[in-house]
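Data availability (excerpt). All sequences and predicted token strings are deposited with the supplementary files. A representative entry, Asparagine--tRNA ligase, is shown inline so that the format can be inspected without opening the archive.
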Amino acid sequence: MEWVLIKNLKNHSGQEVEVRGWLYNKRSSGKIIFLIVRDGSGLLQCVIAKKEQPELFQLVEGITQESSIIITGAVREEPRSPGGMEMQPKDIRIISIAENYPITLKEHGVDFLAERRHLWIRTPKQSALLRIRSTVEQACRDFLNRRDFVLADAPIITPAACEGTTTLFELDYHGEKAYLSQSGQLYNEAAAMALGRIYCFGPTFRAEKSKTRRHLMEFWMLEAEAAFFDFEDNMKLQEELIYYIIQSVLEKHATDLKILNRDVEKLQKISLPFPRLSYTQAVELLRQKGRQFEWGNDFGAPDETAISDNFDAPVFVHRFPTKIKAFYMKPDPSDPGVVLGADLLAPEGYGEIIGGGQRLDDLSLLEERIREHNLPGEAFAWYTDLRRYGTVPHSGFGLGIERTVAWLCGTEHVRETIPFPRTLYRLYP
Ligand code: 4AD
Ligand code: MG
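Structure token line:
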């Protein structure tokens, strides 16, 4: 008997197959039992009638939620069932009976669930989120690989800060101070000077003291960097990447998006190019909407939401004041008070999903900035070397995976978009 994943059952309609998984739910009318079985790839409804299969019916009465089972039987299409397929089991083999599974089918509080994240991920909505996350990550790699970008992994343990010194996780590196990486960007710049077009993809760490729905202490970032790419090339690459990710998710996850109650029309109608507005225009927009906002301040989450509410697609906000952006950003030659950096804000209030821009490629200005930002010059000596030996215009960006998944899935909080989130007050499990 062939073992088939639930998501592939539609290719086996009318055939007898084997499914291996866990019991998610059971409903009984006294005469008929409906089982909902999950195997990680989807949900399968099974029907057993007492009259026709009295022994199997009795066996099934004793199977509890999350017990592991192997079932065999013929499958057929059934549009009213959760996954679109239904099985009439011929045989059910119990692998292990689960006793008193704590996450029942009633509503639980978020703290209760977070404490049991190792089990919570078994529920349909959480599994759907993680499957979509996997596709988003794969789409990122596929897109960049096809564009001739080389994967160059950046280190996790680093001697210096990339994104400001206030959110560093410090560690003791054989008596020397080291930090968990906030971003692979600086190494990406070195790799781009070696390989041309590169990306890194891995976990990044920020000791953020913020407990918001958009912040994690550990999050995954896709970071691309390209030599000879200017600010415009960079934004074009970003919007094409996002568009590609959207299409991949829509194509592969119709069922998951339904489980998540996602309004897919909002994703379907997004087209290229994405709207763009300068920071200064964004400030004007905020004021028109009645918000008090002083030029020179950074946007808070409510400001970002107010801006993105004006658009159906992600929107680039570019040319931020030099003072509020990182030391490595290139000033706009025609207005050095602003930098050639852009944030991409997701629609529907999901906030900034990409930060990026053109890098400072001039040695003396870069050294000046490192001093202004009180960064240790020695730790950045290798980085300034990149401007000493064949410096070129170059640009890059970082895409936050969790925020992107939260937006695509229409999920309120980023903590549900990563298997085991690290949040401000929670390290367990
Ligand atoms: O805007 P950020 O800080 O940019 C950088 O780190 C650049 N060095 C990247 C680069 O150019 N190579 O972070 C990039 C993205 C944000 O837009 C956001 O999506 C995500 O990373 N991000 C977070 N996601 C979850 N939790 C946090 N604490 C995050 N901080 C940033
Ligand atoms: Mg940013």
